[in-house]
C-alpha cells in the first residue's frame, strides 16, 4: 500500500518523452517513426493520419468533415445510431452532410459496409486522381509537390475537394445505384466478395465515370466488368495503393473502354480461361474468389440449386443455404480420400439440405439412377424434377458433366477435371455478358 501511494505521489516528477520532428519530413517518414515507437500499440494506417489531420483542422470545418465520415460509417452498419446523433449532436444535424445521410436511418443493406478507411480512399482517389493516402495528408497540409513548399491555398482547395468526394460517396442515389449494379452482376451477398478493395475501386470507377458524363448504361457494364476482372486477377489483394494510384491515373488520361480492353487482352486472354483459371479452381477453399465468381454467374443466370425444381441458387445463398458435395463427402472418406481431395471446389454445389439428406452417402451413379427411376415411376422422393430433360437442364446450369450419371469413386479425378472446364466456360461467358 505504501509503495502504491509513493508511486502515485511521484507521478508529477516523472518525465514524459518528447520527440520533435521536423515539419519538412515526408508523411511516410513520420508514419515509419510512429510505427517503430508504437510497435507495442495499435498500428496506425495512412487513413488514421488523414483522419487526425481532418479532425485537427479549424480553418476548413475539418471536424465537421470528420464527423460526416465517422457517422456515415457507423450508420451504414447500425442505422439505429441515427437517434443518438439527433439527441447528442444538434450542431451536426444542421449540416448538409447530415441531410445527405438521413436515408441511412432506414437502410439495412449489408452488401457494402465501408469503414472510414474505405470512405476516405474512395473519396480521395475519385476526386484527386491519386491512390496514395499519404498524398492526401500532404495536400491537406497544403503541400505543393512541384515546389516542395506548403501553401494555404492548396490546403483550402484540398479540403473543399475532399468534402466534395465525401458528399458524392454518401449520396443516396450514388450509393444505391452502385449497389444495384453490383447485385446485377450476381454479387447479392457480402460473403461472395472477399476483397473490400475490389468493391472500393468499383465504386471509384462508378463515381469517376459519372463525373466524366459517361453514358449510364456503359457505366453499369464497366463497373461490373472491372469488379469481376479485379477479383479474378487479384488486382487489389494485399497492399492496393500502388494499383489504385496507377489505375486512377490511367482512367484520368484515357477512355475507359480502351483501358479495359488492354487489361482483358493482357490478363484475360483465352489462355487464362483454358489454363490459368482451371488451375485456380483446383482448390479446396470454399471461400475462393474464383468459386464466388462462379456462384455470382449462377445468380445472374437465375440458375436453380442442384436437383432443385424451383429453388434458385440466389435463394440458397441469401437464405443461408449450404454447400454440399456432388461426390458425397462420407462416400469419398470411406474410400480413403482425405479432406484436401473431397473438399474440392469442383465438387461443391449449392443444394437444398433436404435433397442432400436423401442422397446420403451414395455414389453419384446410384443416387442419379434412383432419381431417374423415381421419375419414370412418377414417385418423386429425392427431387421435384419431373423428367430426364429437366435433370439434364439442371446438370447443365450447375456445370455438372453428364458423365457423372455413370461415375463412382474411381472416376472422381476425371470428374473434377471435367467440371472445372465447364465452370471456367460458364465464368468466361458470364464475364463477357456483363
Description of the structure:
- This is DUF1524 domain-containing protein.
- With 434 residues, the protein is mainly alpha-helical.
- The protein folds into 2 domains: 106-268, no CATH class; 279-433, no CATH class.
- 61% of the residues lie in helices and 3% in strands.
- It has helices at 2-9, 27-37, 46-56, 62-75, 81-88, 90-93, 96-101, 116-128, 133-140, 152-170, 172-184, 196-211, 216-233, 241-253, 256-267, 270-280, 289-300, 313-318, 329-334, 339-342, 353-359, 364-376, 388-397, 412-433, and strands at residues 143-144, 149-150, 322-325, 348-351.
- The strands form 2 sheets. Strands 1-2 form a two-stranded antiparallel sheet.
- A hairpin with a 4-residue loop joins strand 1 (143-144) and strand 2 (149-150).
- Helix 3 (46-56) runs parallel beside helix 9.
- The longest helix is centred in the last third of the chain and has 22 residues, at 412-433.
- It is elongated and about 85 Å long.
- The model has no long low-confidence stretch (mean pLDDT 91).
